[in-house]
Amino acid sequence: MAIQDGYTLLVLGAGVMGTAVTAAVTDSKMKPFPGKVILCSQLEKSEKRLKSQFTQDFVEVIVDVEKKKKAIETADVILLGCKPFHFEAVHAQVKDNLKHNPLVISLLAGVTIDNLSIFSDKIARVMTNTPAQFGAGMAAVALSEKASEYKQFVNDFAGCVGAALEIPEKNMDAATALIGSGPAMCLLMMEALYDGGVRMGLTHDVAKTAAAKVMEGTAKMALETGEHPAVLKSKVCTPAGTTIGGLLKLEDAGVRGSIARAVEEAANISASFAKK
Ligand SMILES: NC(=O)c1ccc[n+]([C@@H]2O[C@H](COP(=O)([O-])OP(=O)(O)OC[C@H]3O[C@@H](n4cnc5c(N)ncnc54)[C@H](OP(=O)(O)O)[C@@H]3O)[C@@H](O)[C@H]2O)c1
Ligand SMILES: *[C@@H]1O[C@H](CO)[C@@H](O)[C@H](O)[C@H]1NC(C)=O
Ligand SMILES: *[C@@H]1O[C@H](CO)[C@@H](O)[C@H](O)[C@H]1NC(C)=O
Fold it and tell me: Which residues form the Pyrroline-5-carboxylate reductase dimerisation domain (predicted)?
C-alpha cells in the first residue's frame, strides 16, 4: 500500500542522524507529508532536547517503553536511527508490535537488508551524513525487493536532507565511505588549506572562512556545471601560473592516490563491520 498523506512516522533512535533526517522531512514540502511524527528516546535529557527542537503540534516524544510499543503499532513508516550494534536489542524490545509489517527506513551503517529483515520485509537502507543537519546532506538509498514499490517515496524522503541517489545494496560500503566518512576527509583538506593560509600570514579568522568558502564554492561549481572535476581544474590553471605550481606539489606528495585509498580503506572497514 502506498504511503498516504497524513501517514504516521515513528523514529526509533532520535540521535544526531535520526533527528537531522526527521527535521529535514518535517521542514520540507514533501508529499505525502506526515500527519504525525513520534520520536522515541530513552533518556530524559534526550526527551527535553527533542521537545525543544520539535515544537510542531503533530510531533510527539515518547520515552516510556510501553507507550513506545503501542505507538509502533500505529506507525506506517519507522525510521531507525539507533547505533548499528543496538539494532537487535531495539528489535527485541518492539518485535511483538511489528506484526503490521511497516516500511522501515534504516540509517544504520553496515547493517544489511538481510539483518534488518527481522523488523519487516519492507526495508530501505539510507546512508547519509552530518551535513544533513544543514540541508546539504547526501543520501544513498538501497531497497529490499518488497520495498521496491516505495522507491519514489523513499527517494523523496531521503532527498529532504539535500540529495539522494539509489544504488545497489552491494555498493553500500563504498557509499558509507564516500558519503558518511567523506565530510571528515573534506575537513582535513579544509584544515590544510587553512594552515597554508595562516603560514603565509592570513589571520585565523580570514583563513578559516576562506578555506570553508573555497570548498563550498568549488562544490557548487561542480554541481551546477555538471563538469568533470578535471575539466574545471584545468580551466583554472594558467600556463606557468600559481595554481599549476601548487597542484604539482600535491601530485608529488601522492595526495590524489592517498585520498582515493582513504575511501577504499573506509569501505573495507565498513565491510568488515557487516561480517561481525
Ligand atoms: N554520525 C554520522 O556521521 C553518521 C553518518 C552516517 C550514518 N550514521 C548512522 O546513524 C546511526 C545513528 O548515529 P548517531 O551518530 O545519530 O548516533 P546517536 O546520536 O548516538 O543516536 C543514537 C540514538 O539511538 C537512541 N537509542 C538507543 N537505543 C534505543 C532504544 N532501545 N529505543 C529508542 N532509541 C534508542 C539513543 O537515544 P537516547 O539518547 O535517548 O539514549 C540515541 O538518541 C548509526 O547507526 C550510524 O551508523 C551516522
Ligand atoms: C581493501 O580490501 C581489499 C580486499 O581485501 C584489499 O585488496 C585492499 O588492499 C584493501 N584496501 C586498503 C586501502 O587497505
Ligand atoms: C548481518 O548479515 C550479514 C550477511 O548479510 C551476516 O554476515 C552478519 O552476521 C549479520 N549480522 C548480524 C548482527 O545479524
Answer: 169-270
